[in-house]
């Protein structure tokens, strides 16, 4: 079974993806890390984030050691990932890696922006996870504070709005719910509530597609 989770920044898709993967014993790929790692490689080499040729080279050169989550999770890297993610050739360079992860016989859980629309249009289960910008900014501010980053709620909210706009307006694989995705609004849900709702969606989808 392939479970595709898409949604805007800090909507809760990453947490849900980890929980669903553990529940069903499936491997999980947080595809945002690929874009974050590409951005970090460019920054480390002193290149511009919008240099298409260098960005594609960086995406192609990603190795497993590039995915040290802790250093990729910061605020700056999320913003930079959104810039490289808007380059169609970078998305193309990262496509095969994602599809091959999803093609394991047991299936997989992938979370990102275009899993249900571009990477795995055949996924049995597609969930589009959303929450209000204010709720997402609150969650992200808490998460960054826990990481020890200095946070300013207003700046985090501004980041979220800017990122929503960039991710939704880009021409290549914009943030968009697939026509056959179920939308899960987590604004009023805590983690356990969201996990319960997601499990119900998976159960319903799995039953209807056998
Ligand atoms: O949780 P958050 O959305 O902040 O982080 P993320 O999922 O790691 O995504 C960071 C950025 O990478 C997003 O704003 C997108 O621009 C980009 N991204 C993408 O374009 N496609 C994906 N499948 C995943 C992330």
Give an overview of the whole structure.
- The chain has helices at residues 13-24, 32-44, 52-60, 69-72, 75-84, 88-102, 115-119, 133-146, 153-169, 191-209; strands spanning 2-6, 28-30, 108-112, 125-130, 182-185.
- Helices cover 56% and strands 11% of the residues.
- With 210 residues, it is an alpha/beta fold.
- 41% of the residues are buried.
- The longest helix is centred in the C-terminal third of the chain and has 19 residues, at 191-209.
- Helix 1 (13-24) crosses helix 10, helix 3 packs parallel to helix 6 and helix 5 runs parallel beside helix 9 (153-169).
- The chain binds cytidine-5'-diphosphate (CDP).
- The site of cytidine-5'-diphosphate has 16 residues, from helix 2, helix 5 and helix 9.
- Residues 9-10, 14, 31-32, 35-36, 78, 81-82, 85, 112-114, 163, 167 line the site of cytidine-5'-diphosphate.
Give a short overview:
This protein is α/β, with parallel strands linked by helices and 210 residues long.
Observed structural traits:
single chain, 210 residues, alpha/beta, Rossmann fold, 5-stranded parallel β-sheet, 10 helices, 56% helix, binds cytidine-5'-diphosphate
Classify the helix fraction into a percent range: 55-70%
| Unique ligands | cytidine-5'-diphosphate
Distance between the termini: 11 Å
Radius of gyration: 16 Å
Number of domains: 1
- Give the strand order of the largest sheet, numbering strands 1, 2, ... along the chain: 2-3-1-4-5
Shape: globular
CATH C-level: Alpha Beta
Query: Can you write the helix and strand succession as a string?
Result: EHEHHHHHEHEHHEH
Low-confidence sequence ranges? none
- Assign the CATH topology: Rossmann fold
* Major sheet characteristics: 5 strands, parallel
Total number of helices: 10
Strand content: 5-15%
CATH superfamily: P-loop containing nucleotide triphosphate hydrolases
- Beta-strand segment tally: 5
Q: Which class best fits the helix and strand makeup? A: alpha/beta
CATH architecture: 3-Layer(aba) Sandwich
């Amino acid at each position: 079974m392939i479970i595709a989770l898409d949604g805007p920044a800090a909507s809760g898709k990453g947490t849900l993806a980890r929980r669903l993967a553990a529940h069903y014993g499936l491997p999980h790929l947080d595809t945002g890390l690929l874009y974050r790692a590409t951005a970090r490689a460019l920054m480390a080499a002193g290149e511009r984030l919008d240099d298409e040729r260098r960005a594609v080279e960086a995406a192609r050169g990603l190795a497993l050691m590039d995915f040290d989550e802790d250093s990729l999770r910061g605020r700056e890297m999320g913003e930079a990932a959104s810039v490289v993610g808007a380059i169609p050739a970078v998305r193309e360079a990262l496509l095969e890696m994602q599809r091959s992860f999803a093609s394991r016989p047991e299936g997989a859980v992938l979370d990102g922006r275009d899993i249900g629309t571009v990477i795995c249009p055949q996924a049995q289960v597609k969930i589009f996870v959303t929450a209000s910008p204010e709720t997402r900014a609150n969650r992200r501010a808490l998460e960054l504070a826990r990481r020890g980053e200095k946070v300013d709620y207003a700046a985090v909210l501004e980041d979220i709005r800017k990122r929503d706009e960039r991710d939704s307006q880009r021409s290549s694989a914009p943030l968009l719910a697939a026509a056959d995705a179920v939308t899960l609004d987590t604004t009023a849900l805590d983690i356990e509530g969201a996990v319960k709702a997601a499990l119900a969606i998976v159960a319903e989808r799995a039953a209807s597609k056998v």
